[in-house]
Amino acid sequence: MSTSAESGRRSSVIIQMLSGTVGRYLSMLVIALLLFGIIILISGRNPITSYRELFGSTLGSWRGFSEVLVAMTPMVLTALAVALPARIGLINVGGEGQLYMGACAATWGALTFSAAPAWLLLPLMIVLGMLGGALWALIPGLLRAMGLVNETITTLLLNAVAPLLVAYFVFGFWHSPMDTNRTPNFVEAARLPTLADTRIDLGLLIGIFLLAAFWLFMRYTRWGLEMRAIGGNPEAAQRNGVPVKLYIVIVLCAGGAIAGLAGMAQVSGYYGVLLTGFSRGAGFLGFLISWLSFGNPVSILLTSFLVAVILTGGSMLQLTTALPYAVINILLAMALFVVLSGINIFPGRRTT
Amino acid sequence: MTDQLTTEAQTPPLISLRGISKSFGEVKANDQIDLDVHASKVLALLGENGAGKSTLVKILYGFYQADSGTIEHQGKPVSIQSPQDARALQIGMVFQNFSLIPAFTVAENMALFFRDLGRVMDLKKISGRIETISERYNLRVDPAALVMDLSVGDLQKAEILKLLLSDSRVLILDEPTRVLAPHEIEALFEVLDNLRADGFAIILITHKLKEVMDIADQIVVLRNGRVAGSLSVAETSEQKLIEMMFARPVTEFQRIERPQSEAGEALLELKNVSTQAEGARMSLKAIDLEVRSGEIVGITGVSGNGQRELADLVLGRLPATTGSIVLHGKDATGFSIRRIRREGVAFIPESPMAMAVAPYMTVLENMAVPQIERYARNGGFTIDWDTIRQEYTATMEQLDITLSFYALARSLSGGNLQRLVIVRELAHQPSLIIASYLTSGLDVRSAIAAREALVQACARGAGVLFFSDDLDELFALSDRLIVLHSGKIRGHFTPDETSYEQIGYLMTGSEASDEH
């Protein structure tokens, strides 16, 4: 095989991938907007002005755009927390729970070592957040590796446990003198740095960095190759000497760690405090985004952005027009339908 | 076609097949086969694996279409293009893996098969019909039982019931006794007796001679896709049948010339190893086995008698419940698969797509996986693809195999997948090679090349555990031969001190009267 043929093959694959991806999202946007326009018409409003509101408030100004980026930060991370285990055939529905546990562990760090300087405290909180999420994923990972329970069930059920555990710590030990459902505000050293005067925090950069790292890891490393082998045919991988059970535990924990990092970024960057029940479902959205993107890092970024536009725009729409917020969920759902139906039109899951 | 047919003169046959031929690629599965099926008779189709029995009945059942030949039903030529056509002619078949829906009750499953099922399913009426027929043929199955709760014997009964309810008059049973316990076999034969008395025609595929002698009226032996003989049960004996099944002149398989080497040190020793049965799989019982350096140990048996389990045991995939496994003089009982692979154990499985490759990875990537430690660089963060390409190109040249490195494994034909695995597994001078059905799916030329590669590896000092059904191949290659039956070692020979007939006896369990 000559190298020129190989590089030619690669570049054509990349072009194909890009055009496929862009085409998919454009069609998703157009069709979803058309369908949603009908809903707006039925409720007696002008779809054009509504759309102008929606996009004007999000993409029309730097302020609005920055808010979109803020909203997509946890989604990028939780989507990656699903996409990584999916590569070896594991279905991690537990992003939400892992996010809570990550936030919980990071908060413990922030409250306990509040005197530490930022350069020490923040990395510590990141490590703690990842540990929290990883430990929460360790339970399903071990159970699955031992062949006892499917991880889909356990990760899903643990989602119900994690927020209660967080509430227990907040109510019982960490609550501020004023409120019972929240900790005291974090010290400045425990806050992730933000970009200029926006609320965009370092979490977004970390997320994008991890997406790129994920792609490179799967593409070039030995472990990526072994994971693809497991994902393609676990029985064959096992016979070929790949330690499948070990991978199940470690990869699911890695997914949990990334979701835990999302939780850490939420409390340290966005809120600056740990509230009981703080998450607005970023873990679940991540699951959706990951599967809609077929685990492709570029698609994860684009889909997260799109979902963030719809959600932030939706809140604005609710403020400026009389449309109820629930309507925005219809738009979101329609966008998802369009993407899902695209499975047949565009080539399916890619191997790289 | 040259074989004489002892036809039953008294009644015209219900169905007659004439000159049926069918090829799959280069393999002639059926070659000019004639067969008569009579009402009120049990016809046994006998032959070793790959003799063409299944193909023949699948042609009769419309699953395959014959390349040439005719089928007559009650003297009239018919064309059977699909199982629907076959059922219209009242031909029914029970497959080896059953076709009932586990979550349904027996009655619900039967209802699916009724041609006169109305808009509303009257389960009472259906149950009534089931019970009438069960009574009549002593095929007792509870209509309200869930299929998933049935024993294998009852499942079989339900399958037969299903055929009877859909008015089949010709019943084809593909190895019906393979998974049955002795008492269940007895019960099944009672049922078959009743059916025969009631005028049904029954075609029975089996490997077990004893059963043939017990139940059949007429026996047709197939060998290499041809009719090797057709006789009534009265005029034959087990001895005669075995000769027909296995005896043949050795042709292309002149014993491959090998430098006679002293058997070297023991590479693998299994000492009194037993395993637990998992699901429908066979358990191994007290296996004692040794493979020495430079030696090919052939393992044979009717499929499903523990071959796959033995391979998995050596590979470390199946835990030993008793006994010990010694690899290179070290106790390897309980080693992980990776550990065993690191010890230089290569594995060529019977079904490469299911057991050896990831379909959406390229040939090159699939080749890299088992030996990834060799090729990982920078602590595992990069992979040295150039070296992989070089090494496997060299091996492919050596084995005279051409494969495109960048094709996805799923796009390869069965033969090419097999080649991929052979190249991958033989490339790194393995010390022990587990080869299951090495030449399945390969054409004659590649099969010879693959066998030669194995012999070369042996000459370098590797030991081979060689699983095969093909007695020619086994006798030509093996230094020692082991026959497995019901998870036990039934016989242990050098090729010189045994014969196809003796191996055939042991494979079919004819001398295995002590197991019941």
Question: What composes the largest sheet of chain B?
Answer: 6 strands, mixed
Strand line-up across the major sheet of chain B: 6-7-8-3-9-10
Q: Under the CATH scheme, which class of chain A? A: Mainly Alpha
Structural class of chain A: mainly alpha
The helix content of chain A is over 70%
Number of strands of chain B: 22
Total number of beta strands of chain A: 0
CATH fold naming of the largest domain in chain B: Rossmann fold
Name the CATH architecture of the largest domain in chain B. Answer: 3-Layer(aba) Sandwich
Descriptive key words:
heterodimer, A: 352 residues, mainly alpha, ABC transporter involved in vitamin B12 uptake, BtuC, 13 helices, 76% helix, 0% strand, disordered C terminus, B: 516 residues, alpha/beta, Rossmann fold, 4 domains, 6-stranded mixed beta sheet, 33% helix
Describe this structure in words.
- The complex is a heterodimer of chains A (352) and B (516).
- The model of chain A is unreliable at 343-352 (pLDDT under 50).
- Chain A has 352 residues and is mostly helical.
- Chain A has a single domain, classed as ABC transporter involved in vitamin B12 uptake, BtuC (Orthogonal Bundle), CATH 1.10.3470.
- Chain A has helices at 3-42, 47-59, 62-86, 95-112, 118-145, 151-174, 202-220, 222-232, 234-239, 244-271, 282-292, 297-320, 326-345.
- By secondary structure, chain B is an alpha/beta fold.
- Chain B folds into four domains: 1-90 and 170-248, Rossmann fold, CATH 3.40.50; 102-168, no CATH class; 266-344 and 429-509, 3-Layer(aba) Sandwich (Rossmann fold); 359-427, no CATH class.
- Chain B is 33% helix and 24% strand.
- Chain B contains 18 helices and 22 strands.
- In chain B, a hairpin with a 2-residue loop joins strand 1 and strand 2 (27-37).
- The longest helix of chain B has 16 residues, at 182-197.
- Chains A and B meet through helix 8 and helix 9 of A and helix 10, helix 12 and strand 18 of B.
